[in-house]
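PROTOCOL LOG
Step 1. Enter all chains and additional molecules of the complex.
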Amino acid sequence: MSHHIVQADNLHYTYPDGTVGLNKINFKIHHGESVALVGSNGAGKSTLLLHLIGSLAPTDGDIRIGDFPLNKKNLKLVRRSVGMVFQDPDDQLFMPTVFDDVAFGPINLGIPEKEVEQRVMDSLETVGVPHLIRRSPHKLSGGEKRAVAIATVLATTPDILIMDEPSSNLDPSSRRRLINLLKTFTHTKIIATHDLDMALEVCSRTIILDRGQIVADGLTKELFIDENLLKTSGLEKPLTMQRCPVCSNYSKI
Amino acid sequence: MSNLQNNLFDIFYIDTLACRQSWIHSLDPRAKVLTTLIFVGIVVSFDKYEIAMLIPFFIYPAVAIALADLPFVYLAKKMLLLLPFAFFIGIFNPLMDNKTLITFDLKDIVDLMEFIGFKENIGKMGTIDISGGWVSFLSIMIRFCLTVGAALILISTTGFDAVCLALQRFGVPRPFIVQLMFLYRYMFVLIDEASRMVRARSLRTFDNSNQMRFGIFISMVGQLLLRTMDRAQRIHLAMCCRGFEGDIQMLRAINFGVPETLFTAGWTSLFVILRLYNIPVKLGMMIENLLLS
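Step 2. Run joint prediction.
Step 3. Record the structure below.
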């Protein structure tokens, strides 16, 4: 794929029960960009991600991934270039061992056996868990599962990485490791998250969704200082941008 | 901690056993699966009243437990859990089949005791009749111990995924193997989910009763089913995102070499010998001859 562009034109989606999931959404994400998708619960983040991997088909409008419009005909081709990390790693890790799980994608891509083994090792080393290769996924801790889930996607060498709440349910040190890891990736990244501090560190651009609509799209640092915008979207300033409660109390004394 | 979660840890333990290092553990899973299948096949092939010829078959589980250093008490507990199934299958036999099969003449016992030097006057002795039902019941219980024991040993020395792999190499249809693998993988997730629901319910049940009302039970099972379906959808999506097109392949180098051939051939020969020759009777006759001579 020549340009790893993700583009939505007038994207609209209505659920079968009549609820509007996405309402005339437009954006264009360029090669290598790191974009945070933020918004309150039910804002449409997950619905949008499901559209980007072709799991939901738009009621109206188009999505283009790279050179191809996303439709049934191009679905397989598009999925080769898009890697999705799910919110719950248990959904993603379905094979008996970590090796089998990470090898699952490359085998389906028809990669020769020896190369698959190398890819599995490389991916696990990238996320820092090569020692887990023979373990069963159900025996791993939350942080380990998340790392392996990312490795399963990296092994398919996607151009675009899509992540749904990657830092949820992680302890602080696992979260820090994840953030540092994400910073090293050169892929085009689209990260749906409530963790605005992570978004601030990892993503230079942010799209704020509210009730299925894009209410803001711009530089993360600029959007996150707009308290009114954040408040009306059901969000609040990242902790790192708020005044330290200890220091501010100290200065009052 | 809830029973559900205890069971979960118990299953974890069998997985841990499968990761141990021993000669049996290192064998190709196909050798162990094949040997176990032959063992089970031969054990169930005996006549329904057979007891004596089944006893020597305990040598296989005994040797396997010793070689693989498996915890006997743990395996025995697992077998006890399943025992009621076999018990209720066999318990009606004594009622249905009350024809006398074995008659012990206690006079023979008196003669034997006199022969070995017991001179006391025992008095008049009758006979003890044992019906065919009790014999077949005992036979069922022995078969249960042998077959379930062999299956537990197979899983504890091989691991469930390796057993699936072996079955796949034996030509078992792929969809069946995939179902088995998924069942095993998501059993842990499902038990975890169910135990969380049970815990949530028990924390809001203030009458200290562990009894669950039928209506609540039904709605919880329904919830679990809905959650399972949701999860199944997400898993399928995750699979499709990584190029799944209906076929799961696994890269595993397994090698059926000399140790595997020796293991399978050795045990199979022994099982066949034990099936063809009544070793306990032959041993008994040998001892009798020795005593008489």
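Step 4. Note key features.
Residues 188-251 of chain B form one domain.
Chain B has a mean pLDDT of 84.
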